């Protein structure tokens, strides 16, 4: 996530100057009053205790502290239909006064992208308040013989990967297998990424990915005990949305892009690469996104941008963030909205490729 | 290690943290009493508050609440026959039967004490979990989890009632209802008929509330009078304590079963209580009182559910994999506080680990003591005119069912399951297997396909799997032997008058035949990996239903059409629920309660202030739970 770092450098110039340069003093003043004494309802369309809720509950107090006017955040979980029901509810409420947020993951974005049955929401016309990355780390069991990325094409025993569903957060990782040309047996249908990790520890699977925070807190111990070998991350995108950088937190591991170059001795390109990048953007780079209804006032978006910048500079957010999210910075919706929307509506070639892969290889009915 | 235990005790004895534990305890105790809101409801409502505290105090609040919900939920189960969750089902069967015989005090006293013992055993195991639980969790793969769920199902279907056929039919119905929604093994929708409401299938809370809660309330309303139909015994709680002392083995084995299911993630408290119940029932020499107010099964179940909710924290703390929904919320809180449970958590944060142990143990003791002290007074409710109790109870049941999916269809679903539960009760079909089958559909289907994809049929070769298959086989054999023995000794009791009456049992059996037959027809259109479990439910279900239709057993009495009073009350409730989308929740509820109280109580002019107070209380609750009622 090179872009974050460059933005951080820009931040060194001072949040105030940045804000002033971007919006002018008058706009700043309006954003400052906008949220005074107000309460923002945040819908998390997942069951309590999951990554979606934990991350949202972690970031909202910092946003409350740093958004001008210090709005109160009222977080509610509304699980159902793999987030579709909560997102539909959000669409139905549709009050565009800046006081409603849907804080969700790619589990909401993919069904919209594939126009799945039951989707009554339209993410393409939404504003974005904030977003935060959740990166993946792919690792193997040592008995597969895959001890470094170069071994990936010739494992000693077949690689067995456990996942939840092809249309959820597994998608970009499954696409990385397609991209790299790996031969992996995928077993989908696990109830969560925690049970998948237990199945890996038991030896029922031997090839897995976990999000950065879990990698740092759980899988690192397995790595130290020589029970797991970390291989690659999803990487991070440049300003144009190309996933050529290393992960912002797990900098010591190569990205899927680097592994591709090492295995195939050329730059990745084509429809698989584009599909991987779109899915990675929605799942990892903009992993948890706070969507706001279409027509949300610009003052609200500006106020979130100020809150995001200040929260990122808050040492408390940085320290605690390392433990909860892995340490990725927040990003302001006004800066990333364009890239997110681009990932949300990929080219017809990419969509057709994804539909084809999901229906033929993973038996998804789209 | 003991030094850390001491440090934690010292940190814990801080009056502020102690008071936070009591805040959690009181909140959890009160929420636990309300059907449908207990368990995860208690911790979810406390979470935002807990996150504003320091980690030790915040955890004390959450653990205080989790430690008590399975104790206080006993109250509604015993007094009204309304389980607040699937895991208090056995208590709703046996404890409620005891309450109807005037022994509410005895049932409450015994259940609270068993709860406390279960919680303490759970806390003790949590302490020992550091060296033992890790290897145990890792020894159980997808195949073993599948078999554990099947053990739960086998125990549940042969539990209550006189006929294994009805048990199988009921369990099959539960399994089949559990397959509605997204298939866990394949990205395919089943039996949703295009309704987004059914994407995730039916909600367990609504099913449990309808099947037991609504059904029992309707029957009680139809009968009129108070819950206790016999002379009310106030001093019964001492008898409850003696029950626990006499049946201490049942409490201990129930708690141990609870511990095992708590330590293992994914199968959960619902299965553990039923297995504990089944275990207690099958080891009892005299089975004549089973299902009719036998304290043994209830004591085992109460020990089990408290042991489970405490030991749910074991996989949560050791592997960051929550053992149950309430533990998932505790895990989320730990993340936000900056602790990350996992292999190293226990070693690195021994003091926090012990704080958690102390909190769980203390909340089990204090919670039981609190409920225990209150039980002689609470038990008096059973002497009150039932309509007065039913009014707030129905209001909370409606609120609790809306909490599940927050859709207006929740009320309609509740009513439909209420009708089903009432018909099953009247036709003497056991309802418990339905609930357990429903709960276990997901673990059975998911783990079967995972085990099959990962290991082929080799999962059957695991010694643990083989051991569990033997357990199931023995249990099934014993159940059928018992049924055949009963049948051979049964005397024909049917009279000519009974035979002439309309047979409700036959009607239900015909309806079940139609349901399973159409279920099979619809399943044929599904992909193989999503049709297997619906078929596994529908085919035995169809066979059992046909057996009930055509095989007229010697000694069978025709089940008469239920009393019109009950049908009338059910119809009235249906009208009230139909009024919700038209008039809004509060006007419809107010009108319904007024008419119901007018017809079934002698309040008359006092009805208006009474209904007003109930509506106000429900409004307050809905705000506390952040529910936007229609």
Structure class of chain A: alpha/beta
What gyration radius of chain B follows from the Cα positions, in whole Å? 24 Å
Structural class of chain B: mainly alpha
Shape of chain B: globular
> What is the residue-mean pLDDT of chain B, rounded to a whole number?
83
Distance between the termini of chain B: 54 Å
Largest interface (CB < 8 Å): A-B, 56 and 53 residues
* SSE order of chain A, one letter for each helix or strand: HHEHEHEHEEEHEHEHEHHEHHEHH
Give the strand line-up of the largest sheet of chain B: 1-2
Biggest sheet descriptor of chain B: 2 strands, antiparallel
Question: Would you write up a description of this structure?
Answer:
The complex is a heterodimer of chains A (366) and B (630). In chain A, the strands form three sheets. In chain A, strands 2-1-3-10-4-11 form a six-stranded mixed sheet, sandwiched between helices. Chain A is an alpha/beta fold and 366 residues long. The longest helix of chain A is centred in the N-terminal third of the chain and has 20 residues, at 15-34. In chain A, helix 6 (171-180) runs antiparallel to helix 10. The radius of gyration of chain A is 20 Å and the shape is globular. The two termini of chain A are 32 Å apart. In chain A, 56% of the residues are buried. Chain A has helices spanning 2-12, 15-34, 51-66, 84-93, 106-113, 171-180, 193-202, 212-224, 256-264, 271-285, 298-313, 315-324, 333-344, 348-361, and strands at residues 39-44, 72-77, 100-104, 127-132, 136-140, 159-163, 184-188, 207-211, 229-233, 288-292, 330-332. In chain A, strand 1 (39-44), helix 3 and strand 2 form a beta-alpha-beta unit. With 630 residues, chain B is mostly helical. Chain B has helices at 2-12, 15-33, 40-50, 55-80, 89-100, 104-139, 142-157, 164-178, 204-223, 236-246, 248-263, 269-283, 295-311, 313-319, 325-337, 345-348, 350-378, 386-405, 409-426, 432-455, 463-489, 496-500, 504-523, 528-550, 564-583, 585-600, 607-624; strands at 181-182, 189-190. Chain B has a two-stranded antiparallel sheet. In chain B, helix 7 packs antiparallel against helix 20. The longest helix of chain B has 36 residues, at 104-139. Chain B is globular, with a radius of gyration of 24 Å. The model of chain B is unreliable at 494-500 (pLDDT under 50). At the A-B interface, helix 3, strand 2, helix 4, helix 7 and helix 8 of A face helix 3, helix 6, helix 15 and helix 20 of B.
């Amino acid at each position: 996530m090179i872009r974050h770092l460059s933005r951080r450098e820009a931040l060194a110039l001072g949040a105030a100057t940045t804000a002033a340069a971007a919006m002018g003093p008058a706009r700043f003043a309006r954003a400052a009053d906008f949220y005074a004494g107000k309460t923002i309802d945040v819908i998390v369309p997942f069951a309590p205790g999951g990554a979606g809720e934990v991350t949202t509950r972690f970031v909202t107090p910092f946003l409350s502290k740093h958004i001008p006017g210090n709005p109160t955040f009222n977080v509610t979980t509304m699980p159902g239909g793999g987030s579709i029901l909560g997102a539909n509810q959000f669409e139905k409420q549709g009050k565009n006064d800046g006081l409603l947020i849907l804080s969700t993951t790619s589990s909401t974005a993919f069904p919209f992208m594939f126009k799945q049955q039951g989707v009554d929401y339209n993410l393409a016309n939404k504003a974005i308040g904030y977003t935060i990355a959740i990166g993946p780390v792919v690792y193997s069991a040592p008995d597969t013989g895959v001890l470094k990325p170069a071994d990936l094409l010739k494992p000693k025993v077949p690689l067995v990967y456990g996942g939840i569903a092809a249309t959820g957060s597994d998608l970009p990782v499954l696409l990385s297998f397609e991209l790299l040309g790996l031969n992996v047996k995928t077993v989908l249908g696990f109830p969560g990424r925690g049970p998948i990790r237990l199945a890996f520890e038991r030896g029922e699977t031997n090839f897995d990915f976990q999000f950065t925070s879990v990698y740092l807190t759980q899988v690192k111990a397995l790595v130290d005990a020589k029970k797991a070998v970390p291989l690659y991350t999803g990487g991070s995108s440049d300003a144009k949305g190309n996933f050529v950088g290393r992960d912002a937190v797990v900098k010591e591991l190569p990205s899927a892009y680097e592994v591709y170059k090492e295995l195939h001795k050329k730059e990745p390109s084509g429809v698989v690469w584009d599909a991987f990048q779109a899915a990675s953007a929605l799942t990892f780079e903009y992993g948890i996104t706070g969507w706001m209804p279409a027509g949300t006032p610009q003052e609200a978006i500006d106020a979130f941008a100020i809150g995001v910048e200040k929260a990122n500079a808050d040492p408390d957010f940085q320290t605690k963030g390392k433990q909860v999210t892995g340490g990725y910075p927040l990003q302001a919706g006004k800066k990333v909205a364009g890239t997110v929307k681009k990932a949300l509506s990929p080219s017809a070639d990419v969509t057709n490729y994804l539909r084809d892969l999901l229906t033929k290889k993973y038996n998804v009915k789209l | 290690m003991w030094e850390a235990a001491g440090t934690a005790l010292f940190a814990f004895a801080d009056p502020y943290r102690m008071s936070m534990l009591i805040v959690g305890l009181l909140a959890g105790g009160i929420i636990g009493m309300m059907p449908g809101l207990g368990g995860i409801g208690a911790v979810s409502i406390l979470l935002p508050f807990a996150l504003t505290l320091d980690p030790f105090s915040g955890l004390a609040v959450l653990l205080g609440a989790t430690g008590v919900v399975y104790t206080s939920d006993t109250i509604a189960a015993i007094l009204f026959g309304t389980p607040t969750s699937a895991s208090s089902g056995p208590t709703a069967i046996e404890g409620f039967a005891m309450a109807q015989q005037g022994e509410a005090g005895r049932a409450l006293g015994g259940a609270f004490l068993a709860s406390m013992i279960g919680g303490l055993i759970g806390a003790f195991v949590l302490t020992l979990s550091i060296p033992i639980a890790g290897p145990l969790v890792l020894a159980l793969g997808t195949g073993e989890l599948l078999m554990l769920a099947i053990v739960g199902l086998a125990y549940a279907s042969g539990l209550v009632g006189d006929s294994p056929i009805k048990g199988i039919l009921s369990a099959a119905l539960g399994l089949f209802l559990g397959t509605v929604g997204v298939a866990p093994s394949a990205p395919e929708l089943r039996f949703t008929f295009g309704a987004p409401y059914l994407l995730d299938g039916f909600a367990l809370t609504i099913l449990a509330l309808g099947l037991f809660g609504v059904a029992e309330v309707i029957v009680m309303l139809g009968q009129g009078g108070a819950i206790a139909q016999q002379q009310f015994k106030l001093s019964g709680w001492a008898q409850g304590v003696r029950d626990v002392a006499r049946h201490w083995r049942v409490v201990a084995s129930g708690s141990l079963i609870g511990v095992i299911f708590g330590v293992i993630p994914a199968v959960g408290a619902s299965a553990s209580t039923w297995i504990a119940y089944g275990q207690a029932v099958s080891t009892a020499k005299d089975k004549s009182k089973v299902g009719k107010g036998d304290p043994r099964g209830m004591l085992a179940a109460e020990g089990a559910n408290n042991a489970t909710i405490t030991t749910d924290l074991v996989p949560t703390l050791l592997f960051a994999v929550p053992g149950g929904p309430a533990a998932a919320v505790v895990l989320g809180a730990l993340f936000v506080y900056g602790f990350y449970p996992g292999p190293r958590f226990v070693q690195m944060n021994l003091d926090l680990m012990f704080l958690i142990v102390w909190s769980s143990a203390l909340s089990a003791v204090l919670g039981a003591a609190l409920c225990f002290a209150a039980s002689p007074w609470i038990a008096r409710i059973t002497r009150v005119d039932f309509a007065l109790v039913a009014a707030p109870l129905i209001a909370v049941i409606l609120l609790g069912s809306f909490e599940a999916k927050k859709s207006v269809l929740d009320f309609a679903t509740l009513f439909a399951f209420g009708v089903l539960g009432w018909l099953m009760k009247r036709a003497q079909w056991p309802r418990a297997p339905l609930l357990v089958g429903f709960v276990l559909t997901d673990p059975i289907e998911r783990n079967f396909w995972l085990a099959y994809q990962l290991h082929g049929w080799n999962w059957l070769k695991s010694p643990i799997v083989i051991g569990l298959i033997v357990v199931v086989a023995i249990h099934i054999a014993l159940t059928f032997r018992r049924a055949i023995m009963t049948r051979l000794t049964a005397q024909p009791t049917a009279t000519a008058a009974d035979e002439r009456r309309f047979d409700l049992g036959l009607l239900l059996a015909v309806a079940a035949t139609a349901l399973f037959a159409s279920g099979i027809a619809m399943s044929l259109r599904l992909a193989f990996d999503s049709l297997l479990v619906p078929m596994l439910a529908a085919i035995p279900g169809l066979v059992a239903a046909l057996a009930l239709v055509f095989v007229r057993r010697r000694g069978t009495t025709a089940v008469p059409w239920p009393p019109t009073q009950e049908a009338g009350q059910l119809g009235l409730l249906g009208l009230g629920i139909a009024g919700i989308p038209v008039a809004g929740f509060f006007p419809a509820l107010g009108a319904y309660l007024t008419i119901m109280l007018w017809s079934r109580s002698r309040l008359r002019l006092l009805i208006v202030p009474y209904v007003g107070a109930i509506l106000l209380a429900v409004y307050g609750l809905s705000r506390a739970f952040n529910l936007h009622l229609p």
